[in-house]
Amino acid sequence: MSSDLPKLVRDRIPELIEATGRSATTRTLAPHEMPAALFSKLGEESAELAAAPAGAQLEELADVLTVLQALAAVLGVSWSDVLRAAEIKASARGSFARRLLLLDIGS
Q1: In terms of C-beta density within 10 A (0-12 exposed, 13-18 middle, 19 or more buried), how is residue 95 classed?
Q2: What residues contact 23, with CB distance under 8 A and at least 6 apart?
Q3: N or C: less crowded end of the chain, CB within 10 Å?
Q4: Whose CA is closest to 82, among 97, 93, 94, 72?
Q5: Cα dist. 71→6, 23, 44, 89 in Å?
Q6: Residue 36: is it exposed, middle or buried by C-beta count within 10 angstroms (0-12/13-18/19+)?
Q7: What global pTM score does this model have?
């Protein structure tokens, strides 16, 4: 057993593991377990994105997006509402287009 287990995996991962001749033992999470599992997965995928070389970033971005979409669904929030909230926040507080790094806040 790998030290990074147990962890949430995509639906087809067990069959892909078994196609290599190995076995995969799984259990189905209860609905109340999904938010914590998805938050953990988001951290895992975010770390992989941060460490990815330039050529692998697209795939890692897609993984982060997939986890965010699943998390929204589990939390009962539509993806269109997430996008709308992001637009509202960007309008009110800006985006990251100017690449600003806050260094200090004076008194």
Answers
A1: exposed
A2: 17
A3: C
A4: 72
A5: 18, 28, 14, 19
A6: exposed
A7: 0.89
